[in-house]
TrEMBL record:
One Gene Ontology term of the molecular function aspect: zinc ion binding
Family: Belongs to the peptidase M14 family.
Xref: PROSITE patterns: PEPTIDASE_M14 (PS52035)
Pfam families found in the cross-reference section: AstE_AspA_cat (PF24827)
Protein's UniProt name: Peptidase M14 domain-containing protein
Domain Peptidase M14: 1-263
Domain of life from the UniProt record: Bacteria
Catalytic residues of the enzyme: E238
Species name: Leptospirillum ferrooxidans (strain C2-3)
Length: 271
């Protein structure tokens, strides 16, 4: 049984307690975020393997009431440290827990009431997002993966934003492959033709241009910011609460590793 942790400081401590140097990671303290139990370190993990290989960003815990994401990061790092998972040749940045105060309170927003995933275009974003944007503004990734959950869904779904130059062949539709893979493993998929007000196919939403005006009104989510700053491919994963935390963690990790293998293959194909 996976033990669920709701203490952000303990979760970060546990992440830092993994022997990740051996796996090529280092951890950097980027700041501290106020929570009800005092300041919590805001960290970024980095694994730099070389140049000319894919650059990937993984982030989790921007919504405090979606615990599977940060737990999936911890579990992934544990498995890497125990060499149960061998990462492919990629450069990887990880934000393991973006909203520690909301994580502690189990709320979507941070403790000041901000939905952090709508704050990527404001002039004075909350500290969590300011720290992230300072780091991200001059960086382009080949892939950005976000671990989320949706308390209203009965099955997994995802948002997929593909590079503009990708041809519309089936092999380039990672999202379709991901939901097919998860379905085969017995996980529930949200098959509604409309999810969150947008057309969906087999649990995959591909946001279209018309969303721009929506974001202008409601605030930018991280995926839109990443896209605007040159990250060509983003995947936002949404797990359903009706299955156990261990299963939701498994979905996130499986999907992430699948995306990495696709990334690695598409790179070797193009070089
Ligand atoms: Zn979310």
């Amino acid at each position: 049984m996976m033990e669920e942790c709701f203490n952000p400081k303990e979760l970060i401590q546990e992440i830092q307690g993994q022997h990740l140097e051996k796996a090529g990671f280092n951890s950097t303290l980027l700041g501290e975020i106020q929570t009800d139990i005092g300041p919590c370190p805001f960290i970024r993990l980095k694994r730099k393997t070389g140049t000319g290989i894919p650059k990937v960003l993984l982030s989790a815990g921007i919504h405090g009431d979606e615990p599977a994401g940060p737990h999936a990061v911890l579990d992934l790092l544990k498995k890497i440290s125990e060499r149960k998972i061998l990462l492919p040749q990629i450069n990887l940045d990880i934000f393991p827990l973006i909203n520690p105060s909301g994580f502690l309170r189990r709320t979507r927003t941070n403790q000041d009431g901000f939905d952090l995933n709508r704050c990527f275009a404001t002039g004075h974003p909350p500290k969590e997002i300011r720290i992230m944007m300072n780091y991200l503004k001059n960086r382009e990734y080949d892939l950005s993966v976000e671990f989320h959950e949706d308390i209203d869904t009965k099955g997994f779904y995802l948002y997929e934003h593909q590079p503009a130059n990708v041809s519309e062949t089936d092999s380039d539709k990672w999202g379709q492959e991901i939901t097919a893979l998860l379905r085969k493993k017995g996980f529930p998929i949200n098959d509604n033709p409309i999810i969150e007000g947008m057309p969906a196919i087999n649990g995959v939403i591909s946001p279209k241009r018309k969303r721009r005006s929506f974001f202008r009104r409601h605030g930018w989510p991280q995926a839109f910011y990443m896209h605007k700053h040159g990250t060509s491919r983003t995947l936002t994963l949404e797990t359903p609460p009706c299955i156990s935390i261990a299963e939701r963690v498994e979905i996130h990790i499986e999907t992430f590793l699948f995306a990495l293998s696709k990334m690695e293959r598409s790179f070797t194909k193009n070089t």
